[in-house]
Amino acid sequence: MMLLVPRDDEVLSWMRVLENILDVVDPAKMESSTGSEWRAAVGRCVSSLQGNTGKYPHRHLFPTMNRQLVTHPPASPSFLAGLQLKSRIVVKLSLLPGPAIPAFDVLLSQCLVGLRHLEKNLVLSEFSFSIQSPPRRRHTSYSSREESTPEAHDLWGEAVVSLWRASMTSEGSRGAWDELTPRVLIWGMLVDGEDQSAEWARREVVRNVTTNRRV
User: Fold this and answer.
1) Contact indicator for 37, 100 with CB cutoff of 8 Å
2) What is the DSSP code (8-state) at residue 8?
3) Which of 89, 105, 107, 96 is nearest to 34 (CA)?
4) Rounded to an integer, what distance in angstroms lies between the CA atom of residue 136 and that of residue 165?
5) pTM, to two decimals
6) Domain limits, the chain
7) How many CB atoms lie within 10 A of CB 85?
8) Tens digits of per-residue pLDDT, 142-169?
């Protein structure tokens, strides 16, 4: 399976198709018939779908939280939707049985670049947050036309948690894990401990810090 240079206006549609595949297939049957090749093929396709998920210069954590904001063009609705889809696909790939796919660390890096771009104009202290959202249904041609653009601050939290979970599954993702863990802790604080993954991360960090002090 391979995508041959899809147009930018097709990127989101292809991402929805690939997410649907991950939602409906029987992983055990796919592994027995193709080995890990089916997962690798999905990974290659997602990696090729840069398009509206963007290619942005690397920046570090939270430029808007502790110092004056440098104005950048706001993230477009297509960029937000692309980052949301891609981060969901990455975590779903990471949770499938078998070794990490060859493109996994590339996918994770692409999502981190998008996350940094999103953070350029994001002032988290200005928003109220909620992690409660309706169950997500499978993508259809109708639902794709009706889908609303996610709010940037809520999407940020969703993407951070998804990518952090994905980073825990690959030995080559240690750098991504180190970068995402502070974000997960901040997200947990913003939602007052209601996100189970973020709360688990907070407890583990506290436990590790306490253990290291005792050693």
Assistant:
1) no
2) G
3) 96
4) 19
5) 0.80
6) 8-56+74-214
7) 21
8) 666 666 667 888 889 999 999 999 999 9
